[in-house]
Design a protein that fits this description.
By secondary structure, the protein is mainly α. The protein contains 19 helices and no strands. The protein has helices at about 30-35, 40-45, 65-80, 85-95, 105-115, 120-135, 145-155, 160-165, 170-175, 180-205, 210, 215-230, 235-265, 270-275, 285-300, 305-325, 335-345, 350-360, 365-375. α1 (about 30-35) runs parallel beside α4 (about 85-95) and α16 packs across α19. The termini are far apart. Bound molecules: magnesium ion (MG).
Length: about 375
Amino acid sequence: MKLAPCAADPARSRGRRYDEPAPSLRSEFQRDRDRIVHSAAFRRLEYKTQVFVNHEGDLFRTRLTHSIEVAQIARNVARTLDLNEDLAETISLAHDLGHTPFGHAGQDALDDCMKEYGGFEHNLQSLRVVDELEDKYANFRGLNLCFETREGILKHCSPRNAKLLGEIGQRFLDHTQPGLEAQIANVADEIAYNNHDIDDGLRAGLLGIDQLRTVPLFARHHDAARAAHPGMNPKQERHETIRRIITTLVSDLVESSRERIVSAAPTSIDDVRRHSGALIGYSDGVREENRQMKRFLRDNLYMHHQVYRVMTKARGVVRDLFAALFPDPRLLPPEFFAESQRLEQEHGPSGRARVVADYIAGMTDRYALDEHERLFDPRRLR
Ligand code: MG
């Protein structure tokens, strides 16, 4: 298939941090994808919370199924726009690798603990996972991914961190854009989580249809679904509505982005990077409708009493772990302890704190709960 001239081209990648021979049976981006799928961090996503803590129910989304949904939407959009489907997939599968246990509650708690030591940001951590923490190749640390994949993983970054990151952080200082495949993965992330959170929220009984109908985007598609299929059961009603919303968002995204690409007429990925704004995006109307939906989910699902209670407890678990491990890093597994000493020598207490954060961020929900029990429950002494 012929790609648009502004698509990322694996043959003209800006390269890997360490030179390697080109793969023979796959493209450079396909190799990146395969390295991500074979990483330990990717397997851990199965047991990390998206919104609902992993053990609350077997059917709720986890970080893993979320990442797969993002990849599926991103591939579809990239293919339709003649952009690089492999790269869009690769970035999508990697985008949440740095997430802590317990979703955003875990991230916020860890960021709080790390306040004096450079902070913690899950998106930055995703890059750290693929650049440093996955450590199983003989010739280099990390997964040694292509620049374009790493560029896509790093979605936001403070100027302070951007300076520390060098080449990959430069665009946050220059205020330039990432490639189109990265832009697609970013919007696909949002399409996936808004819609699966509606689905999970309804299934969990935390959201009601009537309540959701106050959001115009939902009401319109709910009406359309019911008109097309009178007498549906609640499960069908939920699904027929959500699939229409996703189709609308994806179609609008494709059409609006196509128009923007045609009028900007970039002839290379560097033209895309230099463009004054993102070329991938919705029309104004759909952007506003989408914003209303996000606001609704924030107020009614993420802040729901039941979610809030669980997440408050989860924040406490992360805080306790940090409070125990940071002052006494000998409690860490030996390889983390060794690393904490190495980084402490180089960077002082911030180095030690970073290793504690790496250890906690890498935990699955249940590992974090187990570790908490091992460290604090006196009955585990018996
Ligand atoms: Mg995500």
